[in-house]
């Protein structure tokens, strides 16, 4: 079943009507319902730092990881700003690739953005290298936006501003693909969809603050031969950058509590 589902999604990236239809659905359906579910809570800072996104190039969208929905909200915001790239977010294989219901949810809710699968079982860890190479392949062909978390897993600690140690997998993707990296910090999203939606519609939920940074400068590390040490250094620089953006988010959140209207916030 996993092999079938992986092959089906992989083939959907081939140029043609299916790929065009999925891109349209991600941009016109997915981005709209995500915006509708967060529009009263979302505040965006630093979007002017993001360069014009070339449809022929690929980008790595890298953020901290507090909620399952961090990258979906961010990707939806970018699509509302004109992004036309195909979005992919590596995801655990459990449920989304080992059950028919999971595959249906992947297709109907994210239009197969949850790809490629990553395996948590120790006996299958070697398969994750193939998944990382698949991400690199998609980035190198252009027209792809890949969302990643350099922490490697969801940070469930009490302090959202203290990130987990950097993992080398994201550094490998960036170093091998040479895609432009867009760092960001996001805070305020929960993991309970019902509570998140009701907080938005009733306007009682916590503000969701998204802070974009400048594209990550990596020329010195990209000039070095690839290897575990260099990949880890790339990820560590990314974590350092995202942590600094977190301090901007902290200040922006404090200002939101004091100002009824704020010109410094981008209207999503």
From TrEMBL:
GO terms for biological process: phosphatidic acid biosynthetic process. InterPro entries: Plipid/glycerol_acylTrfase. GO terms for molecular function: 1-acylglycerol-3-phosphate O-acyltransferase activity. SUPFAM superfamilies: Glycerol-3-phosphate (1)-acyltransferase. Keywords: Acyltransferase, Transferase. Signal peptide: none annotated. The keyword Transferase applies. Residues 59-189 form the Phospholipid/glycerol acyltransferase domain. Pathway: Lipid metabolism. This is Phospholipid/glycerol acyltransferase. It comes from Myxococcus stipitatus (strain DSM 14675 / JCM 12634 / Mx s8).
């Amino acid at each position: 079943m996993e092999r079938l589902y992986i092959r089906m999604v992989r083939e959907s990236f081939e140029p043609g009507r299916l790929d065009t239809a999925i891109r349209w659905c991600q941009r016109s359906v997915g981005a709209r319902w995500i915006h509708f579910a967060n529009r009263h809570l979302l505040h965006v800072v630093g979007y002017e730092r993001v360069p014009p996104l070339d449809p022929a190039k690929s980008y790595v969208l890298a953020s901290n990881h507090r909620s399952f929905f961090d990258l979906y909200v961010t990707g939806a915001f970018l699509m509302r700003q004109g992004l036309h790239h195909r979005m992919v977010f590596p995801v655990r294989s459990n449920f989304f690739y080992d059950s028919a219901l999971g595959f249906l949810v992947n297709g109907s809710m994210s239009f197969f953005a949850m790809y490629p699968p990553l395996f948590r079982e120790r006996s299958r860890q070697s398969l994750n290298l193939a998944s990382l190479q698949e991400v690199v392949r998609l980035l190198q062909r252009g027209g792809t936006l890949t969302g990643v978390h350099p922490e490697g897993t969801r940070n469930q600690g009490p302090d959202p501003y203290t990130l987990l140690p950097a993992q080398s997998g994201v550094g490998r993707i960036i170093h091998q693909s040479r895609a432009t990296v867009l760092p960001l910090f996001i805070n305020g999203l929960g993991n309970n969809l019902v509570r998140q939606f009701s907080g938005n519609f009733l306007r009682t939920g916590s503000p969701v603050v998204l802070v974009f940074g400048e594209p990550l400068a990596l020329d010195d590390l990209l000039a070095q031969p690839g290897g575990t040490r260099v990949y880890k250094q790339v990820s560590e620089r990314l974590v350092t950058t995202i942590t600094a953006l977190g301090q901007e988010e902290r200040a922006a959140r404090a200002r939101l509590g004091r100002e009824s209207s704020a010109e410094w916030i981008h209207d999503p």
